[in-house]
């Protein structure tokens, strides 16, 4: 049978994604959803991510049908001329199907990642004092340039500046656009830099770090929160460098999720309502990430090989200014530092995606 050329687990997953794709297409034709621009954007991103997978699924179905016809022609008692034609054409059809299946596997293992069109990115200065804060600010600038190159939106939700040498103590940014999670989830971890700080009088190279967390922003339907009973909200004044209040009007908002103890404080905007909306979105993201990590831990505990992102506490990348190179702990070789400083992450992300895709395909 031709179907043995495609693993049952692959066919089953493709069928599920085709059904989801059809559901998204119906949603986008629904007038009630069409009136909600955020719902349209989110569904459009998810549908676009599934378009190539579903197209390949249809090609596989046609190829399987063609191969079954050829196999039927080879059965005893059939037309001799047709059987000869089948013997000549069948190897090429089977080869084309094998290549198509390999391609669809790659798309398959990335399909869920590609459907996430919005992330919350948190960057914090690590070890290294003032230089670490400068490094955290540099990393944010790199991501801002990268977002511009990719056509993504880059919205700073909260930023705590460093009071001494400048830079950033911590920041929370919302990044939106097609493929944002697929690329940016590789940025989660500890980023190290080796360079001579501007404050170093003797020209000695220092090592500083910054930590980056990348969280997929969930839809409202994916996170259920009892806002009336489980969440405390209150307004407060915004804070500047060193923690001092920067205004007398309570426009910043702090929310606390009582069951988990998670506290979110947002004060970047001068609008209290906007800060409240941002704080709620970030709370939903944190809760969604907690549940996602819990499920991930349960899955990985049952098998020896881990598929997906690594521990955020691990160093993932080192930028060496003297040599002008970047070394990623997950990849062989080195990359030009000038590319990342300019926001050109395409090459390093492409290599990371290829590596992860190969690992996931092997685990199918």
Amount of beta strand: 15-25%
Query: Please, what is the average pLDDT?
Result: 84
> Strand-and-helix sequence, N→C?
HHHHEHEEHEEHEEEHEEEHH
**Unreliable sequence segments:** 241-246, 302-313
> Which descriptor suits the 3D outline?
globular
Number of E-type strands: 11
What's the topology here?
Layout lengths: L7 H21 L2 H4 L2 H37 L6 H35 L3 E8 L4 H21 L2 E9 L6 E9 L3 H5 L4 E7 L10 E11 L10 H4 E6 L15 E6 L4 E5 L5 H30 L13 E6 L4 E4 L6 E2 H5 L4 H18 L1
Parallel strand pairs: 4-9
Antiparallel strand pairs: 1-3, 1-5, 2-3, 4-5, 6-7, 7-8, 9-10, 10-11
What does this protein look like?
The chain has 3 domains: 2-114; 118-217 and 317-363, Alpha-Beta Plaits (2-Layer Sandwich), CATH 3.30.70; 222-301, Double Stranded RNA Binding Domain. It contains 10 helices and 11 strands. The chain has helices at residues 8-28, 31-34, 37-73, 80-114, 130-150, 180-184, 227-230, 272-301, 337-341, 346-363, and strands spanning 118-125, 153-161, 168-176, 189-195, 206-216, 231-236, 252-257, 262-266, 315-320, 325-328, 335-336. The strands form 2 sheets. An 8-stranded mixed β-sheet has the order 2-3-1-5-4-9-10-11, with helices on both faces. The protein is globular, with a radius of gyration of 25 Å. Mean pLDDT is 84; it is low at 241-246 and 302-313.
Brief digest:
By secondary structure, the chain is an alpha+beta fold.
Structural key phrases:
three-stranded antiparallel sheet; eight-stranded mixed sheet; 49% helix; Double Stranded RNA Binding Domain; alpha+beta; 364 residues; globular; Alpha-Beta Plaits
């Amino acid at each position: 049978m031709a179907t043995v050329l495609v693993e049952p687990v692959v066919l089953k997953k493709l069928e599920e994604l085709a059904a989801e794709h059809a559901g998204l297409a119906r949603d986008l034709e629904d007038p009630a959803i069409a009136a909600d621009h955020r719902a349209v954007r989110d569904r459009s991103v998810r549908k676009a991510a599934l378009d190539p997978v579903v197209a390949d699924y249809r090609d596989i179905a046609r190829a399987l049908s063609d191969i079954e016809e050829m196999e039927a022609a080879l059965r005893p008692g059939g037309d001799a001329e047709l059987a000869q034609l089948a013997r000549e054409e069948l190897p090429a059809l089977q080869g084309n199907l094998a290549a198509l299946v390999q391609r669809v596997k790659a798309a398959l293992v990335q399909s869920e990642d590609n459907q996430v069109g919005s992330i919350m990115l948190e960057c914090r200065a690590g070890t290294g004092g003032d230089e670490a804060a400068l490094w955290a600010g540099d990393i944010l600038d790199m991501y801002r340039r990268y977002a511009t190159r990719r056509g993504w939106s880059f919205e700073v939700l909260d930023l705590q500046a460093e009071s001494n040498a400048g830079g950033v103590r911590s920041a929370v940014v919302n990044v939106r656009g097609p493929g944002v999670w697929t690329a940016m989830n590789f940025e989660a971890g500890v980023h190290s830099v080796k360079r001579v700080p501007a404050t170093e009088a003797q020209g000695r190279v220092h090592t500083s770090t910054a930590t980056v967390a990348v969280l997929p922003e969930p839809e409202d339907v994916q996170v259920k929160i009892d806002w009336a009973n489980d969440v405390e909200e209150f307004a407060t004044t915004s804070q500047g460098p060193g923690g001092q209040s920067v205004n007398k009007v309570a426009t910043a908002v702090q929310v606390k999720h009582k069951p988990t103890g998670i506290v979110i404080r947002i004060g970047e905007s001068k609008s209290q309502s906007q800060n409240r909306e941002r704080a709620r979105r970030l709370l939903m993201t944190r809760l969604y990430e907690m549940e996602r990590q819990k499920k991930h831990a349960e899955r990985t505990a049952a098998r020896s090989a881990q598929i997906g992102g690594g521990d955020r506490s691990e160093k993932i990348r080192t930028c060496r200014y003297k040599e002008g190179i970047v070394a990623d702990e997950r990849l062989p070789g080195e990359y030009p530092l000038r590319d990342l400083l300019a926001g050109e992450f395409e090459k390093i992300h492409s290599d990371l995606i290829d590596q992860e895709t190969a690992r996931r395909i092997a685990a199918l």
